[in-house]
UniProtKB/TrEMBL annotation:
Keyword Transferase: yes
Lineage: Bacteria, Bacillati, Actinomycetota, Actinomycetes, Micrococcales
Every Histidine kinase/HSP90-like ATPase domain range: 14-130
Entries under CDD domains matching the protein: HATPase_RsbW-like
Alphabetic keyword roster: Kinase, Transferase
Enzyme class at the top of the EC tree: transferase
Protein name: Serine/threonine-protein kinase RsbW
Native source species: Microbacterium trichothecenolyticum (Aureobacterium trichothecenolyticum)
GO molecular function: protein serine/threonine kinase activity
EC code: 2.7.11.1
Keyword field contains Kinase: yes
Domain of life, source organism: Bacteria
Length: 138
């Protein structure tokens, strides 16, 4: 476990190629975080990528200057990720998210994200959507 806090922040365009930037940032961040249970790490990474993909999918094309930020944080007790995006307010109730049926082509992202972390929340702050993901390390 890390004795000090590990932090990483990025600011990217709402575009599919930004997902690669997120992968790279997470890879460097994990090096600073230290040892994490493999299942916990996989769940957290999956949740981060699913939320990033959701932001890109539902905001892309809505404006060429759309951007979002990701702040990653870890200390001895928690892993967290906070996204802020300037997209339209999502119309979603996270408490009612369920896994899509096997015949459905979409609808799994939020369910996978929710399953991968201990807490997933979404709120609107001013003109920003704020997604918060948190996993306890123990």
């Amino acid at each position: 476990m890390t004795e000090n806090a590990a932090r990483r922040s990025i600011d990217v365009a709402v575009a599919p190629e930004s997902l690669e930037t997120i992968f790279e940032a997470m890879s460097a961040w994990w090096d600073e975080v230290g040892e994490v249970d493999v299942a916990k790490r996989f769940g957290f990474e999956t949740a981060v990528i699913e939320i990033a993909g959701n932001i890109v999918e539902h905001s892309e094309g809505a404006g060429a200057d759309r951007r979002f930020t990701l702040e990653l944080f870890a200390d001895a007790s928690v892993l967290s990720a906070t996204f802020r995006d300037d997209g339209d307010p999502p119309v979603v109730d996270l408490s009612s998210v369920n896994m899509a049926g096997e015949d459905e082509e979409s609808g799994r992202g939020l369910a996978l994200a929710s399953a991968g972390v201990d807490e997933l929340s979404l709120r609107r702050v001013g003109d920003r959507n704020v997604w918060t993901l948190e996993s306890r390390r123990t």
